[in-house]
């Protein structure tokens, strides 16, 4: 009898999981490399990974950056009848926005555009929206409509309709961005999608989880309202947030073969699906790259592709737990530029644990308890 009740509980729980398949598409870098334009692009639009985490933009404007290595996006719909859009699910920002028919930027010419005139449930908000990028900006208007994500119907959701977009968006597969961070950093005070879902009781638990597949184009998943045990092995390590604006946690150190190579004495880190790499202070990142025998070339830390199997593991020590990345996880291979590490330096003391880290560790973002859960991904 107990077993029957347990099975029924598991079935009930599985029915409450709202899954959104994430597509691992071609990155902007890969697209530009194929066209022989990457070197021109990277010089014209340099990568500033920390700009969207600038505390001076914590309220009002929210900065974002041209991450040319982002590859994961999912499909949502807006309006009645539904208009479909691919979006980056970004735990490092809080606004939902998509291109609109009012946008004349180059980035809007090759993406799907929302048409409010074709939706019977659309309402204008009357406010403007401005999100600053490292190399430009997105501007537009705010409106309300029904948004559908993973089978959840979210009525009266505020979102941005772009009028102008930064040039680098033209090379990205996704149409727009759906932010999953906290309301405190939402531009123009717009209620984030997940907050709207929580307030209406549309999710069974006030948390969501992310699994990023390492190899195939399919298999990655965003799960709203629950945790899917099929995506991880072992126990979940729960880590309290040190700040409730981004998904920010305290990291004790980064080690290689037991030696502290970065974050000596502790540091702050943000778990961010909207950043492709692992980002840290330039001096720390340079030291890590030296330990793995990387050499600098045109701004990238290059390694010998034939040496990956013999390269050391890197361990991120967080809240008493150790999260280890093998070289196969932190080395990126390109058909055009060889092998390079997935680390990027910045002039900030803040760290970003982006997709390079999340691919190895199933990540749970718990709004009820303000914690991040990490478990070894399958």
Kindly report the average pLDDT value. Answer: 87
Please estimate the helix content: 10-25%
Give the oligomeric state of the chains in this entry, treating copies of one chain as homo and distinct chains as hetero.
single chain
Largest sheet: 9 strands, mixed
Q: How many strands appear in the DSSP assignment? A: 26
Q: Which overall shape is indicated by the principal axes computed on the Cα atoms? A: globular
Supply the CATH superfamily name of the largest domain. Answer: Acid Proteases
Strand content: 35-45%
Stated plainly, the CATH topology of the largest domain is called Cathepsin D, subunit A, domain 1
Polypeptide structure, described:
With 378 residues, the chain is of the alpha+beta class. The protein folds into two domains: 19-202, Cathepsin D, subunit A, domain 1; 228-377, Beta Barrel (Cathepsin D, subunit A, domain 1), CATH 2.40.70. It has helices at residues 2-15, 28-34, 38-44, 106-109, 193-199, 282-291, 327-330, 355-358; strands at residues 18-24, 72-78, 83-90, 96-99, 123-133, 136-149, 152-164, 176-179, 207-211, 220-224, 232-240, 243-244, 247-256, 259-262, 267-271, 278-281, 295-297, 300-303, 314-318, 321-325, 331-334, 338-341, 343-346, 351-353, 361-366, 371-377. The two termini are 32 Å apart. The model is unreliable at 1-14 and 57-66 (pLDDT under 50).
